[in-house]
Design brief:
Mean pLDDT: 91
Oligomer: single chain
Distance between the termini: 26 Å
Strand order of the largest sheet: 1-28-27-26
Length: 356
């Protein structure tokens, strides 16, 4: 219900495909959109954690619940050239360090309305990672590799290791359920709603022996593929709300990749901000959507989509704010948006709040 970089803060490849998992896909030709700014936003910097007194290298906000609590990670660069990150929880202008499971780094990916937080952490020795659940401020190792989302009844979507493969998984009722794949050797559960429906991405074997990533939806033991708009390119499913509306991205017949909205079997192309790539990362209870898109100038900008219109969030904040917004990762019912961008040359996490 509620996706960050493709690399874990420790430097290892992450299986978390909720946040901009397809930014690395080839950038394609898109559809210019008319944007009519109807809402403006105030913007604040969420701050950063003090980790060993080292200089801050990046702060990323991954999720926000309807109470306005934000989670993500804050990272530093050590003198040895390593990047160390700690998961954070932010509320009422205070950022708290959630700690790790004994290793050097952790990341918080999502939280539910009860304030339970899921993510991933390195274990002692930094050679292995585990999904982690923070409840009442305390981390618990729950197995698997990453917990990517958690619903209001504490079911978790994420990924587990199956021999040398990685599979999407559901934590429910004290069990970890392997959701399988679309035929390939990889899948990842990106989001889950209160009905227990899971969406994500899975590899699929194609003609010639290669693999391609496709979005999926999983319910009642069955995984269903979400195909492209056209052609035989990739797709992704990044979020699902309690109404069962799915958002993500899909390739087009003109070799583009566009943000998608899927209701039942009907899939809508949300277009782009003028470039040739976009992907939707989060949808709230009201159907408002945020994500990222290439502009006509070839820059990555965050967008908000509401009532059939995609708008560039960089045009909806005060021009004197000093921010260069880059990615919108999540939106709550109140329309508050979190993500990451640059301020004074540093990568920081932002919170946008609609102006009255």
């Amino acid at each position: 219900m509620k996706g960050e970089r493709l690399t874990h803060p420790s430097g290892r490849r992450s299986v978390h495909y909720k946040r901009a998992c397809l930014v690395a896909i080839l950038l394609f030709a898109g559809i210019p959109l008319k944007a009519t700014a109807q809402v403006s936003y105030s913007v604040i910097d969420l701050g950063a954690l003090d980790i060993g007194g080292y200089p801050v290298s990046a702060v990323v906000a991954n999720d926000i619940n309807d109470a306005g609590i934000v989670v993500g990670f804050s990272s530093v660069a050590t003198p040895a050239g390593d990047e160390v990150a700690h998961a954070f929880r932010w509320q009422s202008n205070k950022m708290s360090d959630l700690g790790t499971l004994g290793g050097s780094s952790s990341t918080a990916y999502a939280l539910n309305r009860r304030g339970e937080i899921v993510g991933s952490s390195l274990l002692a020795g930094d050679t292995q990672s585990s999904a982690v659940l923070w409840s009442r401020g305390r981390p618990s190792e729950i197995g698997g590799d990453a917990g990517n989302d958690i619903n209001s009844i504490s079911q978790i979507a994420g990924a587990v290791f199956v021999n040398v493969d990685i599979h999407a998984a559901l934590w429910s009722g004290g069990q970890i359920i392997d959701l399988g794949t679309l035929g390939g050797d990889f899948s990842n559960g990106a989001a889950i709603n209160d009905s227990g429906q899971v969406v994500g991405v899975s590899s699929k074997l194609v003609a010639g022996g290669g693999y391609i990533n496709r979005g999926f939806t999983w319910a009642n033991g069955s995984m269903t593929e979400i195909g492209p708009f056209g052609g035989d390119g990739p797709s992704s499913a990044n979020d699902i709300n309690n109404a069962g509306v799915i958002v993500g991205g899909a390739s087009t017949s003109s070799n583009g990749f566009h943000a998608l909205r899927r209701v039942g079997q009907d899939m809508t192309d949300l277009g782009t901000l003028g470039g040739d790539f976009s992907t939707a990362l989060s949808i709230n209870a009201l159907g408002d959507i945020v994500g990222i898109s290439l502009t006509a100038a070839g820059e990555i900008h965050p967008f908000v989509w509401s009532n059939g219109t995609m708008e560039d969030l960089t045009a909806l904040v005060p021009p004197v704010s000093g921010w260069q917004l880059r990615e919108a990762h999540a939106i709550n019912r109140k329309g508050q948006i979190v993500g990451t961008g640059f301020r004074n040359g540093q990568q920081r996490a932002f919170l946008l709040t609609p102006n009255p």
